[in-house]
Write a structure and sequence with these properties.
The structure is a homodimer.
Chain A: H1 7-16, E1 25-31, E2 37-43, E3 53-59, H2 63-70, E4 73-80, E5 85-96, H3 103-115, H4 118-123, E6 153-167, E7 174-180, E8 186-191
Chain lengths: 193, 193
Amino acid sequence: MPAELWRPSLDLALHRNRSRPEMRLVQLATVRPDGRPAIRTVVFRGFLDDPRKLAFATDSRSAKRAEIEANPRGEICWYFPETREQFRVSGMLALIGPGSTDPALRQARADLWAELGDEVRAGFTWPAPREPRDAASRFSDVPPAPSSPVENFLLLTLTATEVDHLELQGDPQHRWIYEADPRGRWSGREVNP
Amino acid sequence: MPAELWRPSLDLALHRNRSRPEMRLVQLATVRPDGRPAIRTVVFRGFLDDPRKLAFATDSRSAKRAEIEANPRGEICWYFPETREQFRVSGMLALIGPGSTDPALRQARADLWAELGDEVRAGFTWPAPREPRDAASRFSDVPPAPSSPVENFLLLTLTATEVDHLELQGDPQHRWIYEADPRGRWSGREVNP
């Protein structure tokens, strides 16, 4: 049994729903500096070597960067229509940019950049998101080189501390809560759905 | 043109994606009393007569009730895979229970209760969500009468104040922000994706 008791269930759900490309899309919630919640769709880029760390790509010019710098708590939610399951994963967010002092994370950032599609890499050269659209704005479809991440490309990680797994298919339904203690040891319990 | 400039785009997206039953599912973000974000899947139950108000059903025993009482700001996110569009709708959440003093909202609550499926109505008689599951817990599949909502059934409304519409299909992509001023007048602008 792995230390992360929730990983087998999530890995199985990802496998059983793999025919749907949108299964790589999850919703990420953060808190804005003014105390309002924010939520948007992000692409899940897999787990890092640390089995608690989920990886995403983001742009240093995006609103979520400022939100995460002010409040690093985050929660993602996956809903799998094929198997009628929901996973909520909450934990700590971290942004890894060109100045990161952790060699493993710097490497993970470079690896993710190299794996991105050309279209996604080209987006990082576009004018700043949410700024007024200007007729003169250039949206190039020429991607920067896969070998060297642009400055504004960030690896975003979510280190899980709590997972809530709801299975709607049972009769009655099933729901489990998994929590990490401060030393990182996981425990799980079944709760009412 | 309706006063709610964003409604035609959202109504069209709902229509164009209507073949997928999961299109009624959206993710709702709130803020927990301890300042962490929370996110879960909810079923969109349509608009109320007020075209800014989206309706959902919830249970007064759920965690989101306490979260919303402490901080009524909410944001939902829809992702439509067929048309590759995202809508983020943020605004004020309100909980309408049996003690509501607004006759129209009390009626909307009764109407929604009557429209729910038997399986959903039965769930409101189940033991409290997130409490430890007990072997003796009874999960009845006998639904309460559609004519009289149970005490713990709440109509949850989101009154939109800002909408962020992202269209991934264009080349380049398109993104619009719609905002209501304090008097409820909407304005929209195109921004960089």
